[in-house]
Write a structure and sequence with these properties.
Length: 195
């Protein structure tokens, strides 16, 4: 499968303060420089606290990944497949087990209403699909939200580079928790997700 977009994960830049945008801009420039001699067309840009590389034309995906691996500051390269928005058509497929909300922060104050409505609609139309959500907020800050009952698992807490551990399941740093939402709501306290 040929991937059309790569989500670039960066490390220490994520903990910068008000000048973070300067470091992100420098990373984007370095990515563009690393790809300039490769076959294909590449569009590198920032969106919602993430860096993306869109690929077009005749390019070698392995070459793209190798070039990106050499850029200082990148800690992860995630291939992304762009799909045409067909509403919930893709969710009807048997091999799709669920939905994950991540990127930016789904629980940012400006996103909550829309995410809540979308999670409710997915739960009503596809009750057997799982819904996961990644947020920088901690459970104690969001456990009062009325639509949480539509979400199965929340991974809470900001990613902390100093607590990064590649051996962790479903989370990037040791401070984050993988929370069973329904069990936590019933118990009135955090219950961790058990596979």
């Amino acid at each position: 499968m040929k991937f059309q977009t790569y989500l670039i994960k960066y490390g220490e830049i994520g903990i910068k303060g008000k000048n973070r945008y300067m470091f992100e801009d420098a990373l984007v420039r370095q990515i563009r420089h690393s790809l300039k001699d490769l076959d294909g067309l590449f569009h590198t840009y920032k969106a919602q606290g993430r860096v993306y590389v869109d690929c077009d034309g005749d390019y070698d995906g392995d070459e793209v990944v190798e070039a990106l691996k050499r850029v200082f500051g990148i800690v992860g390269i995630c291939p992304v497949v762009r799909v045409e928005d067909k509403g919930f058509e893709e969710l009807k497929k048997d091999y799709v087990s669920g939905v994950t909300f991540s990127g930016g922060d789904p629980f940012h104050l400006e996103n909550r209403e829309e995410i809540g409505a979308l999670a409710k609609e997915i739960r009503e139309k596809f009750p057997d699909k799982t819904i996961w959500l990644y947020t920088g907020y901690e459970w104690e800050e969001i456990c009062h939200l009325s639509f949480l009952s539509n979400i199965d698992v929340i991974v809470d807490g900001k990613f902390k580079i100093e607590e990064k551990d590649n051996n962790l399941h479903w989370k990037g740093s040791a401070n984050q928790r993988v929370i069973d939402v329904k069990a936590s709501l019933r118990a009135g306290e955090v219950r961790l997700y058990q596979e």
